[in-house]
Design brief:
Structural class: mainly alpha
Strand content: under 5%
Number of helices: 7
Radius of gyration: 18 Å
Helix content: over 70%
Largest sheet: none
C-alpha cells in the first residue's frame, strides 16, 4: 500500500505539534518539577496521535508523526535525552497498534491511550534496570516490599507496581477517549463528518 502525500503532510503537521509540545512544555514542566509531567505530555501527544489518525486513517501515519515528534524532541535541547524520545516512539507505536487492532473507532483511542500510559511506568522500570544496574533495582524492590508491608498491601512491590500500572492504564484510557472527542471536534471544524 502506498503512503499518500496527504498522509505525509498530516504526519509532519501533527508530529511537529507533538514535538513542539514535548520540547517546550516538557522541558518547562520538568524544570519546574511538576509531578506526573510525563503523563501530562503523554496526554498532549495522545491528542496529536489520535487526531492525525482520525483525519488520515492511513496505517502508519501515527508512527510517522511520532518519528517527527521524536526527532524534534531530540534536537530541541541540543543533546539526545533518550527517555523522552523513547516515550514518544512507544506512545506512537501503542496508538498505531491499537488502531490496527480495533479499527478507526473510539475503542482504538481508548485502548491506545491505555497502552501508551502503561508504557510510562514500564519504561521507568526498564530504564532504571539498564542505567542504575541490578543492585539498584533490587534495592528498590526491597524498599517497595517494605512500603507495601507498612501499608498493609499483600503482594509487596509487585502489587504496588501493578496498582500503578492499573491506575495509569485507566487514566490513559480516559485520555484516549478525550483525545477521540477532541479529534471529532477538529473534524467538525474542518467540515468533515465525524
Amino acid at each position: 500500500m502506498k503512503f499518500p502525500v496527504s498522509a505525509w503532510s498530516h504526519a509532519v503537521l501533527f508530529g511537529t505539534l507533538w514535538g513542539a509540545a514535548e520540547a517546550t512544555a516538557g522541558v518547562a514542566l520538568k524544570a519546574a518539577g511538576v509531578p506526573l509531567s510525563g503523563l501530562l505530555l503523554a496526554a498532549a501527544g495522545l491528542v496529536c496521535a489520535v487526531t492525525v489518525r482520525r483525519l488520515q486513517p492511513t496505517p502508519g501515519v501515527v508512527l510517522a508523526a511520532g518519528a517527527v515528534a521524536a526527532l524534534l524532541r531530540a534536537g530541541a535541547t541540543g543533546a539526545v535525552h533518550p527517555g523522552p524520545v523513547v516515550a514518544i516512539l512507544l506512545e506512537a507505536l501503542a496508538v498505531e497498534a491499537a488502531f490496527g487492532l480495533a479499527g478507526n473507532r473510539a475503542a482504538a483511542a481508548l485502548l491506545g491511550g491505555a497502552a501508551a500510559f502503561v508504557a510510562a511506568p514500564v519504561q521507568a522500570v526498564v530504564t532504571l534496570r539498564i542505567v542504575a544496574g541490578r543492585e539498584t533495582a533490587e534495592a528498590l524492590t526491597v524498599w517497595g516490599d517494605s512500603l507495601a508491608r507498612s501499608m498493609g498491601v499483600p503482594g509487596g512491590a509487585a502489587a504496588l507496581f501493578g496498582a500503578v500500572v492499573l491506575a495509569t492504564g485507566v487514566a490513559g484510557g480516559l485520555a484516549g477517549r478525550g483525545a477521540w472527542r477532541i479529534a471529532g471536534r477538529v473534524l467538525v471544524r474542518l467540515g468533515r463528518t465525524v
